[in-house]
Every structure is written in structure tokens, then in C-alpha cells.
Amino acid sequence: MSFADPSLPAAAAGEAAPPSGKALDRAALGRAETAVRRNSALRRASFSIGARLAAVVLVTGTLTFGAIGGLTAMRLNRGLAEQGEALSGLSEMQIAEKLEGEARLARARLDNMFAEASRQVRALAQRSDVMKAIASENDVTIRELFAPAAKVAELDLLLAVDPEGHIVGASTTIDLLGVQDAFTASDLGASITDIVRENDRIKRRIFQVSRRLGPVVGQALGFADADRIGHLIVDPVFDDFGDVAGALIGLRVLAPVEATLEAFSSLARAGVTVLSSRGP
Asked: Which pLDDT tens digit goes with each residue over 27-41?
């Protein structure tokens, strides 16, 4: 049995003594704290980078979608404006076509009305009693026959013309010489004379015109309004031998409110105005 020398130090007796448990705990705790701080710093750095990326993505997405939305809205507004203009133009064209069609229908109504006046004058010119009344050149006899005939035929005036082109009678009491002078002063005088001087029953010629009566002719015929529009028909009258016995003049004047056009306006639901070169 040997005993160590108590006079020698403990280190000289063998290996160094291991650290105590407290020292180990402090070292481990320090390392753990260091690791925690590193992890925390890494997490903060990672969060900061992620937040920045998210912010960049969010801002970029917002700007992108905003720009796309703005462009889409602009294109949509432009498209709506173009569609509105197109629809407006189409509506105007449709309205114009509709009004043009209605104007043509109104014109056809007027043409039919004047054509009916021409048929009535033709029917009267072929009556033997009318021929005899014109041949008599008696204004009283002519007026007594013409007045009811004009009313039935819906004519405003009937005039009798002798073979020389002179006015010899009328359906109303008017100044026959004044009418003759008014016709002579206008272009109507030559047209009337042409009908009675050169005509044939087989190749019958008539004269008809729609026109403003004018101040001279209108006043002579008993119409104070010179702007009245009338349809005048000159139809020859032949005797039993086929010779020209005279002529019959019929006049159909448009009323300020014409019943035919009023009826058409009610059906078409559109106003109708007859225009001449001087206006309505």
C-alpha cells in the first residue's frame, strides 16, 4: 500500500479536475442564448424581406389592376359612346325614312284628291245639258246648272268657256270680265285658248295644274288669300257632231285645314303641311 505525498499539489498528482456543473450550465445557457439571438435575427431579417416583397407585390398588383381597370373603363366608355352615336344616327335615319314615307303617302292623298276633281270635271264635260248651257252663253242658266253640280262634285268653282276662249258663266256670282282679264294677264289664258281651239274628241287633250292662285287670279275668282293652292282643270266640251263647243274649268282649292289631310294625319300620327315655292 502506498500513500500519496500530501506535500505535492493536486495537479501534480494526475489530470486536471473537470469543471463543475454550474460552469457547464452557464456555458450551455450562453450558447443557447446566442443561438436564440441568431435565430431571432434571422427571423427578423426574413420577415423584413418577406414584408418588403409582399408590399412590392401588393403595390405592383394594385397599380397593374388599377391601370387595367382604368383602360377597360375608358374603352368601355368609348364603346358606349360610339354605340350611342351609332344608335342616334340609326334612329335619325329611321325617323327620316318614316317621315319621308308619310310625306309620300300624304302626296298620294293629294294626288288622289286632285285626280278625283279631274274625273268629276270630265264627267260634267260629257253631259249634254252642260254642253247646251255653255252653247247658250246665258250666265243665269249656266249658274243654275253649275251651282248644284259643283257642290256634288266637291269643286270650289266651275267656269264655262265658249269656243273662242271667253268666260261666259260660273257656278257662283262673280265678275266674269274680271276673271277673263285675270286669266289673260296670267299664263292660264293661253292654256285655256289652246284647249278650245285645237282639240279632238278622239285625241282629247286637257290642261290641269296645281299652283298658287296668286293675287290677281285669286281675287278675281273670289279668294282673298293669294297664297291659296288650287288644282285647276280645263276639259273640252264637244257637241253632237264632235266639234268643240267650249270648255269646262273646274277648280279645287285646298282649305286651310284640309279634311283629307286631317284624316291622314290622325292615322299616321304626324303633322302634314303643304308647301309651295312661297312657303307653307
From this structure: 666 676 676 676 666
